[in-house]
Each structure stands twice: as C-alpha cells, then as structure tokens.
Task: structure prediction
Amino acid sequence: MWVILILTCFHHPFPMGEGSVITTKAETFLVDLAVHRYPECALFFVRQSGESEIGNNLLSSVVKRLKTSPSYNAVYSTSLSNLSSIKFSTEVTNWNRRGHICKIIVIVVDHFRSDFLQGVKRSISPTYLPMVKKDLDYWIWITPQPSQLENLLLSNYLPAKTKYKLGLSFTPSGDLIIKSVCFFCNEGLPQIIDFSPEGTPSFNYFPDFVRNLMGKTLRISFSAIKARLEVNPPYVGVNNAHRGMLKALFHEFLMIKLNFTYNMFLSTGTDGGYGGGSGLQLPNGTWIVDLLDDFTFLGTVGDVISGKADVGILAVNTVDRNREVSFTNSNFDRVYLHFVTARGARIFSPATLLWSFDFVMWTCIGASTLLAFTVFKLISKSMEVLGIDNTETRGVTRKENWGIRHQLFFVMSSYLHQACVLPTYTPLRCFAAKWLFFVLVVTTVYRSKMVSLLAFPVMEKIPTTIAELVDSDYTIGFIKHGDAAMSMLAASTDPAYMKLVKVMEIITGNGLECLERVMERKYACFAYTMATNYLQYGNLSDSDIRKLVYAPEKIFVDAFDACLSWARPFHLGDLFEAHDMQVTVRLAKRAWWMATNQTDKLEHSDPDESDDLTLKHIAGAFYGLGACLVFCCVVFVQELVAVTIVYNGVLG
Result:
C-alpha cells in the first residue's frame, strides 16, 4: 500500500492572515500529486493544533480543489499525547483490510516538538499493524523556514526513519523549495538533495535511495546459530563472517546487489557482554536490562531497538518481536522442529511362525478345526443310528470303524499335507473334500507370508509423529537453542505437546550428546532441522549418519514447497547450505580425523544388515522341531505305558 504522508511545520514567521498566500504553491504541488501522479490515494489530515490558520487554509484549499472529503482527520491532543480523530475517521484495522492503495496525509505542525512526532508515530505508524508505513509509504514534510528543513528531514524522532520523503519550504518571496535525503550518498552518510518544484510528469519525486548503500558499513547483530553463521571474536573489522550459509548469502548476493560492507557481532547478553540470544521480552514489557544505571538491550531484537545494530539476524519470529521491530516478508531459510531416532532393528523371534495371521485369524482357524471334528462326529453318529455304516464303498477301505482317532489325525495331518486314512462312507468323504479345499487356501496363504517373514524379517516400528513418540517407550531429549521453540511448546494446549514438555529432557550446549544417545539406545532427539544437520555433518561419520531416521514432515510441506519454489526459482538457500556443510564443515571434519589418526571413522560401511539367510531367519523352524520331539517323546511314553498295561493284563 503506497501512502503520501505530508507534514507541515510552521513557526509563524509571517504575519497572520498571509497563510493563504504562503500555501498557494504548496497547495498547487500537493493537488498535482493527488490528481495527476497519485489519483488513487486517500486524503488524510493531521494537525498539531486546530487553531493553526496556515494549516487550516492549506487543509480547506486542498479539499476544495480536490472536491472530496478527507478520509482521516485528526488533531494532536497535548493532554493525551496522542492523535484525536475528529471527523471522517476510520479504524486502523479497517484501513488495513479495505483501505486505498495509498494515502495523502497532511500533518500541520505549529511548533517542532518531539512529543508531537512521537505521537504521530505511535498513532498512525507503529511497528505493528501501522496505518502508514515508514518504509513503504510517501512522507512530505513542510516548514515555512528553510533553515529548519534539513533538521526536520534528519530528525531521529520520526522523519529520519521514513524511507520515501520530501521536505517542502518557502523562500521569503513565496517560492517553493523541495528537498529530499539520499541516505548513503555521502560515503555512506545522509546527504540533502534538491529537487525542482516543476518536475516533468514522469519525474519521480520519491526515488528508492536504499537500492545502493554506497559502501556503507552495516552493523549486524546475530544470534548464536552455528548451523547458519559463525563469526570469530572479537568481532572487529568489516566482512568478518567466518563460515555459514548466511555468509554466502551476504558475500555472493546481498553485498553485490546493494553495495555495502558489514561488521557482524554476537548479540548482547544480560551481563552487557556477548550473549547470542535472539531477544527476550522482560516481565515489565521492555527489552532492556538496567545494569547500574547502564541500559543493556537483550538479544538481537534489543540491539536493533536500541540502535546498536542496523540489521539483526535471528531464527524465529514471534508476535512480541513483531510489535517492536520489522521483519523481512521473504523467508530465505526454512527451519522445522523435528525429531531424530535410530533405524529400527530387525526382529528375529520364534514367534515369527505365528505372525502370518493375526489373533482373530488364528481364532477362526481353531474354531473351524473344532467345527470339523464336530461335523465328522455328527455324520458318523447319524450313520450309525440309521444303520447305514456297513455299506460297501469305493476307494480306500478299512475294516475297522473310522473313529475319533482317525478323524483327529485326518484333520491335523491335512494342515501339514500328510497322507492320512480317508473316511469310508460317501457323506464323510464329501465333507472331507470340502475340508481339504479350506485347508488348501489357508496353508497357501500361510506359506506365502512365511517366505517374506523368514527371508526378510520385519523391522522394529519407530514413531513417526509426536503423538506416537510420547506414547512410546522412547526417551526424548530436546536441544534447547534459544527460547522461542520451548515457549511455543509450553504454550500449546495440544495433549501430545503438553505430554512432550513434561517427559522430555532439556539438553543445552551444541546438542551433540543428544545425537550420540540416539545411536546408543531407544532415544529420540527433538531439535531444529538446521541444528541436527550441522551436528551430523560436523561430528558423525557417514555410517553413523545413515543410522539416523528423521520423522517425516507434514503432508502440506511438499505442496507448499512446490509453490514457494516458483518465488525462489534459484534455490540459493539450499545451494548455499549444501556448499557450506560439505566444504567448510564435513571436509574440515574429515581432515581433522586424518590429522588425529581416526581413520576408522572414514571407512565406508553399510548400516543395513545383510539379506543372506542365516540361522536367525529360520530359528523358528528349529524351535518347532524341538517342540515336536518333546511331543513325540510324550506320545512314546504314553504308548509304552499303555502297551505295558495291556501286556501285563494278558499275562495276568
């Protein structure tokens, strides 16, 4: 949204009654801006005093010539130290939702006072949800005294912090003077520039002077995020970044495009030294610590607020920070919170013989077997009652009756595809055929599943979501880098996150021990993606890295990345990070291992186990063989006892 903000500052050097004469050329210039150059703009008026004759004349004359009413009209209230809307006013939220493309704001200042400028900033141009934006909208400052024009344009209270601005003043004869400020034209310092009041229709009164910083040295405060940026102390000199993806961003892109140099320093801590934090708002609502009457600003946000830094680099944006400083709309880097676990181990167990079917299926098979015994018994009994059990049959015949023992061995041996004695009567043989077909289907499925289970054992199931992680038997560690992530988790009302905060271990420092625990036991490491990437490239061997498993991202990430990639067609962030991790982190780690004779970590190894069939794959068959031997011994003993009893009975 473009805005023309026009401030008029009068010290009344002319006699009363001449206000209309003085403002004639200013009125003509403003009407030209509103009608011919920016016709889509809304008209705003803010006056320091409702008694200003010159300001009232300028207001009424512009409104009459434009034949419209102002969209915003306010007068500064000394008692309230704020702007008081009096007519045609709308709420800020309404303007942010349905306001015009730009706004022409006329601000009449009777006396140059800092409290008035601060009131204007607080009322219509705060950092959070501004009605008029200091870095995007147009500002015009008007004063009848040419000697005060430069001081007004360079005032730190508000004018110097506006990007697009003009200064208007008048000569004693009433001619219009127009000036602007080139922020860095004077070897990186501000310089006043004169414009002609009679510019051509295509002349741009609001050029972007921040496209070329003219070699200015920017003071940049950064948070202690080694995964993205490292600067060696004592943080002196220009272009002093040591390594990191952000160093590549500055050296290979921003410095070339904007023509500047920089000095980076670690953000301020609570003791006044280098702390490395992003910024923490104190309970009293400020970002400042008073150390023996010496104000210290906390973190990167505090450094920017205090003016100690021109630019700040931090990892996370929060609502509290948004209310104090402005952030770039474009995100160069994408960082997620995720957790890392080790690969699931292969499971070798005699219970593999039962894994082909679930409990319900095994129950159904058992019930079907009992049902088969019952049906065979009912058919046999019915034939015996009806007296049709002595008819001659075809096929396998047997003199003795096909009793319960034969039925038992027939049903059980059919599962093992073993030869068995068939029934001698047609009704029994019909049911036996249907039973054999049922057994064929069941055993075929069982054998097919057993091939994959024995040759390729199942892997241990690892958690892939936060809910699964907190409900598992994994120990959870959280690498605490700053307070933003921890504050977000602690403020969540989701049951999974609430349980996560209660059970997780807080790990400070660089967090390497968290990844080491992952490879040693059932442990999950919760951290930023950039932290885990930096730790693994800088400390772990390639074989150890392949043992780690990252929880899958949300289902929306790929779709959003595909759309965002159109806006980031060159993927410079990904390229910078890959180059930094390989050249300045991984290769440096390998060189150090070579220098310290740790060559064992350089061996190429495959973390995946061999797929060759071993005893562990078919151990269940041997356990089954052992169980059959025990069962045979029991049957042998039973038969021996039975024969002995019969033999002794015959002898007796």
Observations:
- The mean pLDDT is 75.
- The first strand starts at residue 4 and ends at 9.
- The radius of gyration is 42 Å.
